[in-house]
Amino acid sequence: MATPARAGRAIDPVSPGLGRTKAFGARRSRQNHGDVVTTSEIQISALGVDDLEDAHGLSMALNWPYRLADWAFAHALGEGLALRHDGRLIGTGMRWNYGPDFATVGMIIVDGAYRGQRLGSRIVDGLLAGAGDRSVILNATLDGLELYRRRGFEGFDVTNQHQGIAGPLTAPDRAYRLEPATDTDWPAMTKLDKSAAGMPRARLLDALAKVGRASVLRGEDGGVRGYAVCREFGRGHVIGPVIAPNFEEAAALIAHAMAGLAGRFVRVNTSARSGLGEWLEAGGLVRVGSEEAMVRGSLPRISSQACIFALCSNSLG
Fold this sequence. Notes:
This protein has nine helices and 13 strands. By secondary structure, the protein is an alpha+beta fold. It folds into two domains: 18-152, Aminopeptidase; 161-310, Aminopeptidase. Strands 1, 2, 3, 4, 5, 6, 7, 8, 9, 10, 11, 12 and 13 form a 13-stranded mixed beta sheet that branches. Helix 2 crosses helix 3 and helix 6 (186-197) packs across helix 7. The chain is globular and about 60 Å long. GO terms for molecular function: acyltransferase activity, transferring groups other than amino-acyl groups. It holds the Pfam family Acetyltransf_18. This is N-acetyltransferase.
């Protein structure tokens, strides 16, 4: 959970538009010097498409890197909740269901003028209620750790955010068959993704096929052995998901996906246990932040064929 008024929270700063920043600053000033708002005056409802510009404003106040297009991409794939006061959006949260057994949650923001009223708890509880019996996975900032622990979440990993200006990455010495994905590859990529993630993410892959470009690693039989997706996000590009059998092949896929991005801003979100950290740092993608990966319920069962080496995003998984 995040509150825009807290300085130093952002781990990927951008320069907010002046008009939006002034507007949110003025709202906080009026709220901080006005009457105390009671919880009953704040309504919770669905986050709609018409809310996305204001949601983008909340994330800009946090210096989060999301573009309006990034909000639209995430919103189209999930279900969102909105907190409103006097008709104004003051908080958001999103959930993405992956089949009947799993879901992820994220993009949880409360306007800093309203912090200290347990509004983040209202959003999280609403998202969890909508998840039903699904196990829920998220990446938690330090601000949200205790909230999630009180709701039965347990840590299972650490997600590191690496970013920087793309330079040459030293690919493994072994020669791999790496190619741009074709339209006919996406069904095999979706099948491999389900095996690696342990949950059905076909809608996510379908959406990525429309906005990103993918690299595939082929086996001796020509089949898809791994893949990486590169798409525009935030200040530049993000590489993920990256699905591969091992570190060397994941590194080869990332290097292939970064081809043509020299001098541009690139971000990769990867598990601390992936083994990619030092290699990414050597290529100029420094670690700028970490979040605790947590689950309420059971983790998906994944195959030994391949695993996730980089996330689509910390929210979507």
